[in-house]
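Problem 12. The chain below contains 186 residues. Write out its predicted structure in token notation.
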Amino acid sequence: MGYFVQLIDADFGVPETTEVLAAIHRMDTDWHELKRGGSYGPNGREHSWFSWMPGLQSLHTVQDVFEALGFEVYVKDGKVYLNGYDNKTGQEELFLAAVAPFVDDDSFTSWRGEDGELYGYKVRDGRLVSQQAYMVWEEEGPFKYVHYPVRSIGEPLVPVSVDVYSDTPVAVQIAAVVGIPIKETV
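Solution.
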């Protein structure tokens, strides 16, 4: 079980510095209570970790961290750029929040969930901001059918917008655009 997500767009470059890596390592203690992974014994939870992650102290670069999270990355000009993700979700957004103070403002990630939900995260003033996408359907006007009338071989196709509800016959509408009479078929 799990919820699969895909990174559909991103401009999110994380500096490959010891300062950023230290901030990620501090998550082990500062955000210990937020860990979702763990093992349980007879007395309850015995060990805990961030979902799908090894111990953070075992990761020695920022690139290692984001690859362990499941991101496809590339490195350019001293930054680790998030380039792809197509997997079960873990706690990626928590790591994005941890590095947000070091990332350029307006950096973003855009995601699509397995159910089609669109959402994202953007950095504003060194903090991660959640974004929700909404699809809006707007009317453009009356329905027009785009028709490509058959012409002589070698002549270019000319698209004709036909108003199927018009009192003007379709053949007349086509002839007016194409410039040649077209025989109506019965």
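Discussion. The mean pLDDT is 89. Students who got a different answer should revisit the alignment rule from Section 12.3.
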